[in-house]
TrEMBL record:
InterPro entries: Acyl_CoA_acyltransferase, GNAT_dom. Keywords: Transferase. CDD domains: NAT_SF. It comes from Halorubrum salipaludis. It holds the Pfam family Acetyltransf_1. This is N-acetyltransferase. Residues 4-174 form the N-acetyltransferase domain. Coiled coil: none annotated. It comes from the Archaea. GO terms for molecular function: acyltransferase activity, transferring groups other than amino-acyl groups.
Length: 186
């Protein structure tokens, strides 16, 4: 198996990361990428094949907050701060995508583990992601379950399977809020 390296983003990554992320969306949708280069509370990590460090295979980011209302303002699916459990420092996960054809290699887990480490250094005591759980093999629900997250809220995404980029016969997609509390000893 080839080696995966995790690195900080480079300004030249923006277009490729936008294409990587947008490839997961319905046709006609796009996503603007913030690399967080000058923001000490925003940590973007890029996964690459060690033999091709200029070609991103995955991306994930952690944005720190002290206030649940600020977290809710940043979330894509949910904007109600009452859905967010109390914490002193929040770590909101976003941009968690792996390139088609590169899934199943542990890239999402490596990115998530590294972001958990950064968050621990910064005092994050609650990680959360408002995520798109879908019927594809690469649904983030599996990743979050393996890493100790609990899904605390779900809302169905009502659309026909023909409009869904992941589900084939029936769309089972949900907007989901997953959280992981850090114990004092972690």
């Amino acid at each position: 198996m080839d080696e995966i390296a995790i690195r900080d983003p480079r300004p030249s990554d923006a277009d490729e990361l936008e294409a990587l992320i947008t490839a997961h969306f319905s046709e006609g949708s796009s996503y603007g990428v913030d690399l967080g280069l000058d923001d000490p509370t925003y940590h973007v990590l890029v996964a690459v094949d060690a033999d091709a460090p200029d070609e991103p295979l995955g991306v994930m980011a952690l944005r720190e907050f002290a206030d649940p209302a600020a977290v809710a303002d940043e979330m894509y699916f949910f904007d109600d701060p009452d859905l967010i459990p109390a914490a002193d420092r929040y770590g909101h996960l976003e941009m968690g995508y792996v390139k088609d054809g590169a899934t199943g290699r542990g890239i999402g887990s490596r990115l998530l583990d590294r972001l958990h480490g950064i968050g621990a250094e910064r005092g994050v005591d609650l990680y959360l992601a408002d995520s798109w759980y879908h019927g594809g093999d690469d649904s983030p629900e599996k990743l979050f379950d393996r890493h100790g997250y609990e899904t605390v809220h779900r809302d169905p995404i009502d659309r026909p399977a023909s409009e869904c980029p992941k589900c084939e016969t029936e769309c089972t997609c949900e907007a989901a809020l997953a959280v992981r509390r850090v114990d004092a000893g972690e």
